[in-house]
TrEMBL record:
PROSITE patterns linked: CN_HYDROLASE (PS50263), UPF0012 (PS01227)
The organism's place on the tree of life at top rank: Bacteria
Protein family according to the UniProt entry: Belongs to the carbon-nitrogen hydrolase superfamily. NIT1/NIT2 family.
Keyword annotations from UniProtKB, A to Z: Hydrolase
Classification via PANTHER family: DEAMINATED GLUTATHIONE AMIDASE (PTHR23088:SF27), NITRILASE-RELATED (PTHR23088)
InterPro entries linked: C-N_Hydrolase, C-N_Hydrolase_sf, Nit1/2_C-N_Hydrolase, UPF0012_CS
Domain CN hydrolase: 1-251
Gene Ontology MF terms in the entry: hydrolase activity, acting on carbon-nitrogen (but not peptide) bonds, in linear amides
Protein name: Carbon-nitrogen hydrolase family protein
Pfam families (UniProt xref): CN_hydrolase
Length: 276
């Protein structure tokens, strides 16, 4: 299975972002991608108050545009996240949507861990002021030319909570998605080590499209959108611009890694729902 990550510098201008998403998706399809993944809040990255105004349901016009991208390219599409209307009128969900090549919804994951953090040399973030936390880990199946693959979904700050990924792996995940808007200040020290650790300890492919650059003069994202293999090798990493990066995932290699070093079956401490 060939995957492309889209690295974006999303703005407050919905139309502008959607145009870039489509352009880069067409480029990815031209490179033979089976699955195209967009970063967290690809369609809109702006002030919290504005986010509420653009929020929609899964059946709204924002997700519709990504359904059209899936249909037109014939690819699976991961919409890293978009602001989804929640039952709480003052908060949105931060929602990742997996779409099949027909544009149908295959999975919906609402970000569980919210970024309420005072970043040194950066801003103070209070994601929970405008976002309602999701409750449930989500896995889904992506059907690729080389077979069906179970993928575990997560978003950005979730990356710091390894117990979430253990649960996804216990449910059979061999691919983990981490679409992000990881900050420049935290990313330069933590982005690669955390992605690499999740890949090594869970023996999974890790797909992490990130936002890059300065957004509305208020915050900067680290970029370095990256693909790690189940041994922890970095297969691809994006340069400092809006772009795509592509890699081929090899699931025979993944099985080989898991057989030679069966960490996942050697576990002695942990949740009861581990794979027996
Ligand atoms: O709010 C939006 O519009 C988009 N969402 C985000 O940017 C989110 C919440 S503020 N960012 C993160 O989770 C960064 C995590 C991070 O950088 C770290 O864990 O170090």
């Amino acid at each position: 299975m060939k995957v492309s990550l889209v690295q974006l510098c999303s703005t407050r201008a919905l139309e502008r972002n959607l145009t870039r998403c489509r352009q880069l998706a067409e480029q990815a399809a031209g490179e033979g991608a089976d699955w195209i993944l967009f970063p967290e809040n690809a369609p809109f990255l702006g002030k919290d108050a504005d986010k509420l105004a653009v929020a929609e349901t899964i059946d709204g016009t924002i997700v519709d545009q990504f359904r059209a991208i899936a249909r037109d390219t014939g690819c699976w599409v991961g919409l890293g996240s978009f602001p989804e209307i929640s039952p709480d009128a003052s908060r949105t969900y931060n929602t990742q949507v997996l779409l099949d090549p027909a544009g149908q919804t295959s999975a919906v994951y609402r970000k569980i861990h919210l970024f309420d953090v005072d970043v040194e040399g950066g801003r103070n973030y209070r994601e929970s002021d405008s976002v309602a936390a999701g409750q449930s880990p989500v896995t889904a199946t992506v059907a690729a030319p080389d077979g069906d693959h179970t993928v575990g979904l997560s978003v950005c700050y979730d990356l710091r909570f390894p117990e979430l990924y253990r649960k996804l792996v216990a449910r059979g995940a061999s691919v983990l998605t981490v679409p992000s808007a990881f900050t420049l200040q935290t990313g330069r020290d933590h982005w690669h080590p955390l992605l690499q650790a999740r890949a090594i300890e869970n023996q999974c492919y890790v797909l992490a499209p990130n936002q890059w650059g300065n957004h509305f003069g208020q915050r900067s994202s680290y970029g370095h959108s990256a693909i790690y293999d189940p041994w922890g090798r970095m297969l691809a990493c994006a340069p400092e611009k809006e772009c795509i990066v592509t890699a081929e995932l090899d699931f025979e290699y993944l099985q080989d890694v898991r057989q030679r070093m069966p960490c996942l079956t050697h576990r002695r401490v942990g949740p009861d729902d581990r794979k027996k």
